[in-house]
Amino acid sequence: MTKPKKFINNASTAVDEYIAGLLLQYPNHLRKLSNHHVLLSSSFSASVHPNKSCVSLLSGGGSGHEPSHAGFIGNNMLSGAILGGIFASPSVASILAAIRAVTLPKDEGGKGCLLIVKNYTGDRLNFGMA
Fold first, then answer.
1. pTM for the full model?
2. Measured CA distances, 14 to 45, 48, 54 (Å)
3. How far apart are CA 56 and CA 30, in angstroms?
4. What is the edge-to-edge ordering of all strands in the sheet holding 56-63?
5. Which range is most confident: 9-13, 63-67, 105-109, 118-122?
6. pLDDT at position 8, please?
7. Which CA distances in Å does 95 have to 3, 33, 58, 111?
């Protein structure tokens, strides 16, 4: 029997499995944004949008650095995390979807969104395009 080299079953499904595991572990704290590898604080499904009282904080990047992004979602921490593939930046579409999910327009009382981007070329490009 060969020794395993990784703690993942399959690289192509690792991000989906990681998200599913976090949602099972923290069902009352996290929610997934449909059709994207984006996790948000469950407070964004409340009747009063959290962005009316504070600036939303988003971060993201390639998976494989856990709990680098999704592990820091919570009160007075990140509002959400955008996850890319294994060591790959998240897509521009997912970043933009996350920004839209956590940010209200200014005329509706939104306080804005701060993106926390690490100094990795792919992250800088994709977050900048979003």
1. 0.90
2. 26, 34, 33
3. 15
4. 30-32, 38-41, 80-86, 56-63, 113-116
5. 105-109
6. 78
7. 37, 11, 9, 18
